[in-house]
Amino acid sequence: MIFNTATAEKTAELLLQINAIKLNPSNPFLWASGWHSPIYCDNRLTLSFPAIRNFIRDEFAKNIEEKYGKPDVIAGVATGAIGIGILVAEEMGLPFVYVRPEPKKHGRKNQVEGFLQKGQNVVVVEDLISTGNSSLLAVEALREAGANVKGMAAIFSYGFEIAKANFENANVNLNTLSDYEHLLPLAVAKQYINENELSTLQDWRMHPDTWNVAVK
């Protein structure tokens, strides 16, 4: 679910402008999962554009407090959301921690890095939601550390049904600055794609695990 329509449209436009989101239906990308995709999203690029990262920071800070109330701690999911998570925590005047994909193999063997007390209210910041599996592993680690996870805020979501089901099953409230549904009409209006390419992108969205334009 998006925080609001105006933010969703503006965020999508900014991500397209800096090629953080690339749309290429005729020459699809190959994801690490093995899926072929006409879209590739790298929101870490936003950190290289001060005006855009500040917009994302401000929208996160405002909407997190409106949606979840002011938490005790902001948590970023490593590695993609560490940078923006720190900016959000700084803007909100809050402590920051980040969550590794798995515990370290040495030293203190931490998975949650930073100072976190049991019972503290935490909002998790993420850069991108696909299936939600890796994001929810971070939530699980925070809960195991005794945190009260109020919800998650992400820059962008593909809006897959599997992700919706995963977040519901984990009882995690997810809100995003933008999503696939708000991206596509904007991409057509701004002439990043044409109507035929729009149809391809819509088809992929319905069956991303089996879609492959190269064999059609």
Can you describe this structure?
The chain is α/β, with parallel strands linked by helices and 216 residues long. The protein has one domain (5-23, 44-181): Rossmann fold (3-Layer(aba) Sandwich). The protein is 40% helix and 21% strand. The chain contains 7 helices and 10 strands. The strands form 3 sheets. A 6-stranded mixed sheet has the order 7-6-5-8-9-10, sandwiched between helices. A hairpin with a 5-residue loop joins strand 2 (29-30) and strand 3. The two termini are 32 Å apart. The mean pLDDT is 94.
The CATH topology is Rossmann fold
Number of strands: 10
Mean pLDDT: 94
CATH architecture: 3-Layer(aba) Sandwich
- Integer tally of domains: 1
How would you characterize the largest beta sheet? 6 strands, mixed
Evaluate the radius of gyration.
17 Å
> What is the name of the CATH class?
Alpha Beta
- Estimate the strand proportion: 15-25%
Contiguous low-pLDDT stretches (5 residues minimum) are: none
Task: Please outline what is shown here.
This protein is of the alpha/beta class and 216 residues long.
Layout of helices and strands:
Layout: H1 5-17, E1 21-23, E2 29-30, E3 36-37, E4 39-41, H2 50-68, E5 73-77, H3 82-92, E6 96-99, E7 112-113, E8 121-129, H4 133-144, E9 148-157, H5 161-169, E10 174-179, H6 180-189, H7 195-206
Parallel strand pairs: 5-6, 5-8, 8-9, 9-10
Antiparallel strand pairs: 1-4, 2-3, 6-7
Helix pairs in contact: 1-6, 2-3, 6-7
